[in-house]
Amino acid sequence: MEGYIVSLIIFTCIFALFSLGLNLQWGLTGLINFGHVAFMAVGSYVVVILTLPGYLKEIPTQLLDEFNWMQETPWVAAGLQSLATILPQQIPLIGAVLIGACTAAGLGVLAGVATLKLRTDYLAIVTVGLSEILRSIALNEEWLTKGTFGIQRFPLPLSTLNPNVIMRMGMIVVLTIVLGLALWHQWQWAKRTMRSASAQALLRSSSLLLGYLGSLLGVVVMVGWGSQQLKASAAISNGVTGAFLIGAIALLIGLYRWVWLTWMSSLPALTEGTALITSITVTGLSLWLYGYGSSAIYHYDRNPTKTGLMWISVLLVALTFWALQRLSNSPWGRVLKAIREDETVATALGKNVFWYKLQSLMLGGAIAGMAGALYAWQLTTVYPDNFRPIETFNAWTIVVLGGAGSNVGTLIGAIIFWAYQTLTRFILGDVIPLNDAQIGAFRVMLIGLLLMGLMIWRPQGILGNKEELTLDR
Amino acid sequence: MIDKPTSQHPPENDALASASVESPHHMPAADSLDPATALLSAAGLSKHFGGIKAVQQASIHVPHGSITGLIGPNGAGKTTLFNLLCNFLTPNEGTVTFDGDVIHMRQPHEIAQLGMVRTFQVARVLSKLSVLDNMLLGAQQQSGETFWNVWFRANRVRHEEQHLRDRAIDILESVGLAPMAHAYAGALSGGQRKLLEIARALMVKPKLVLLDEPAAGVNPTLIQQMCEYIRTWNAHGTTFLIIEHNMDVVMSLCDRVWVLAEGKNLAVGTPHDIQTNPQVLNVYLGIDNEPKS
User: Fold this and answer.
1) In this structure, what are the phi and psi dihedrals at residue B117, rounded to the nearest 5 degrees?
2) Cβ-based burial of A75 (10 A; exposed 0-12, middle 13-18, buried ≥19)
3) Are A50 and A94 in contact (CB under 8 A)?
4) A351 Rama sector, left if φ>0, alpha if ψ -120 to 50, beta otherwise
5) CB-CB contact of A446 with A424 (8 Å)
6) Helix A389-402 vs helix A407-423: angle between axes, to the nearest 10 degrees?
7) CB-based contacts of A82: which residues, under 8 Å, 6+ apart?
């Protein structure tokens, strides 16, 4: 369990980081980037190529083997051979990550110069193409990427570390500080939100809300349990189980929606109650995860690679989040928002729109590049197939779910996305009368369905601002 | 007394002549109409869209400290001329000089940075930003608009932001929008949006503001106020070039009016001249007042 939770935290952090980059580009600047995974791929490959001992040195030789004309042209051959002697065996991890992020930013410049003069929808198409071109290159240029064989056994961060008690305590303290700051901000927000309600109304609305959500959870678990029993018993056909499940879900949605519309939605101090319940849930959940995380660090030698990676990931997400939050609320962020709203106005007010868009692409790309490094370390192998367009759309799901333009929303979106991935992986197979291949497809369908529901009932996402959507231009 | 620009007679010479003859008390000095000393000076501007010649050989000169009007019937090419002046559209021919710089090859944002700001015919406020943020966006050379400064020079950025906030609130107060400072700009009424757009242009600390129909769709009371504001800002040294259909506004505000018809200069003169100019009446009302030869 602990190992699984640690791995889950890492995945959540990777996708949070990846999506934060996209949120900067799309949520803040309005650039429709459907090729975000390209930045991640570049980050992954650069880090891996630079850190695998001896790999970088071999590239010139590989090139000579690959292309005959290089061997036949004396000055190219000589140049490559001397390059092989100059190139270092490997580069320290931190340096490699920085170079990887810079290369991803460079890709942003390349993509930007080529496409930013295009209107938004064309940019979207070009970026999809870009990410697929990059994947094809990774697939075919074996001298650089080993193609479908992939690259393995590259060094992982902190994996050879054998920290003594003091170091481990230090790592836990850092984690505690991050969590403390996050919860402090959460409760500051809750306090601000709840200020407008009287204690009595708050108590009433929050307890009713707790009852509503708690009973919903209970009934859902019961339906799931019932379905599981039906599926397990050989006497009952899958059709009956399916009918039971669909009927029960339809009934539940109808009932709870009716209750919501009749009593809950008109409750005084509902927003405040929601804030309270949310804060309590977030606190409970994060403390639970923190327990596993700190226990994993305390028993560092049980699983040194994952534990070290988890610590780094959490730290990197926290730092990036903080940096982006500053940016979003700064004059710089204001210019990006203005460009998102109306480029012409930004130009008329003396802002160099092209340069700001380029900065946004570069910075978002660099963040995705760092996410790529973490991704490579988490998977411990790098294949071109890790970077299919679906990863881009997962990031889009996360950003849309959380609310475009909101960094906090993006973090929450990442957490919900991975909670969904995990829960459905373990539970759905037992509950729904489908075979494993069907379940896999069904999970993706369900995400589509959830997104459709979100677009209909809460188009602004979880933390988005409804008021902003309804404003005319 | 009526100017009729032709290719042999550039309009500014006639304008010069008429100004020196009339020179009412509020008129700028005659030499300020000289293109060499004008704040903004465009000569021989042309713009073609395919076969359509939207603007042909148009010229305009805006003296320092003046309020200059630009009128003409619908489709005369006034807004296109504005776009050419700010280089939102690149002219096919002609030159634009602003405050000693030749600007028709510059990027539009550079032109704004030089101190020449425009507004739009349909007010373009950034709806999803607050009124205050709309205003702050107008300020030039903010150190906080460079992203590393946000991280590494946080104090300077905060200090500057506070200063700009004060200035923005001052301007908003002067136009009566201060109570709305923290509302979304999208929540403003049409007239308030026009005001916000002008106020935002002033945040640039411009030398010249180009207003495209500031009074269009604005109620009469607000129009009066708007004229007052423009006069006040003009008295503080901002030059204005105004496209306007509302003749009362043009007549009460402008020192000098340029008339454009079918993309060409038709006339230039004091508001009084223009009002009695038979050619202008002709293009506006279709009355043929020209003496038959």
Assistant:
1) -115, 150
2) exposed
3) no
4) beta
5) yes
6) 120
7) none
Q: Give residue A451's identity as a one-letter amino acid code.
A: L
Q: Is B112–A323 a contact, with Cβ atoms under 8 angstroms apart?
A: no
Q: Could you tell me the two tokens for B238?
A: 């901002």
According to DSSP, the residues that pair with B118 across neighbouring strands are B210
Residue with tokens 């993509």: A111
Interface contact A341-B128, CB threshold 8 A: yes
The three-class DSSP label of residue A163 is coil
Joined together, the tokens standing for residue A271 give 């927003």
pTM confidence score: 0.89
Closest approach of A169 to chain B, Cα-based (Å):
30
Chain A hits for B113, Cβ within 8 Å: 350
Token pair, residue B284, equals: 């506006």
CA-closest candidate to residue B85, choices B38, B15, B142: B38
Residues in B touching A323 (Cβ below 8 Å): 151
Listing from the earlier edge strand, what are the strands of the sheet with B239-243?
A: B116-118, B208-212, B239-243, B67-71, B256-261, B264-269
Site from B106, B121, B128 to mutate, A interface, most A CB atoms within 10 angstroms: B128
Round to whole Å and give the CA distance between A111 and A98: 20
Position B15 pLDDT exceeds 80: no
CA–CA dist B109, A346 (Å, integer): 8
Interface contact flag, B184 A351, Cβ < 8 Å:
no
Reported as type and span, the H/E element at residue B24 is none
Residue in B12, B15, B11, B13 with CA at minimum distance from that of residue B1 = B15
Nearest Cα neighbor of B214 from B67, B55, B43 is B67
Written as six digits, the tokens of B276 are 């009695």
CB A311 within 8 Å of CB A158: yes
Instruction: Indicate yes or no: CB of A334 within 8 angstroms of CB of B129.
Output: yes
B148 in A contact zone (CB under 8 Å)? no
* Residue found under tokens 């966006």: B137
User: Secondary structure of A266-277 in the HEC alphabet?
Assistant: HCCCHHHHHHHH
Neighbouring-strand partners of residue B257: B69, B269
Number of other residues whose CB lies within 10 A of the CB of residue A293? 24
Contact A352, B107 (CB under 8 A): yes
Report the percentage of chain B scoring pLDDT > 70: 85
Instruction: Say if residue A61's pLDDT is above 70.
Output: yes
Q: Render the burial of A315-329: b for 16+ CB within 10 Å, e for the rest.
A: ebbbebbebbbbbbe
Record: contact A331-B142, CB cut-off 8 A: yes
* Three-class DSSP category at B96: strand
C-alpha to C-alpha distance for B183 and B253, rounded to whole angstroms: 31
Q: Residue B33 CB: number of other CB atoms within 10 A?
A: 24
Nearest one of A341, A219, A349, A213 to A280, comparing CA atoms = A213
| ipTM, two decimals | 0.86
Element (H, E) at A257: helix A238-262
pLDDT of residue A27 exceeding 50, the answer is yes
Find, among A128, A16, A29, the residue nearest to A402 by Cα: A16
The confidence band for A455, taking pLDDT boundaries of 50, 70 and 90, is: confident
User: Strand B101-102 vs strand B93-98: parallel, antiparallel, or unpaired?
Assistant: antiparallel
| Residue A224 to residue B219: CA distance in whole angstroms | 63
Return the number of CB contacts < 8 Å for A and B: 96
| Set of chain A residues whose Cβ sits within 8 Å of the Cβ of B120 | 344-345, 348
- On average, the pLDDT of chain A sits at 90
Q: Find chain B residues with C-beta within 8 A of A331's C-beta.
A: 136, 142, 144-145, 150, 157, 161
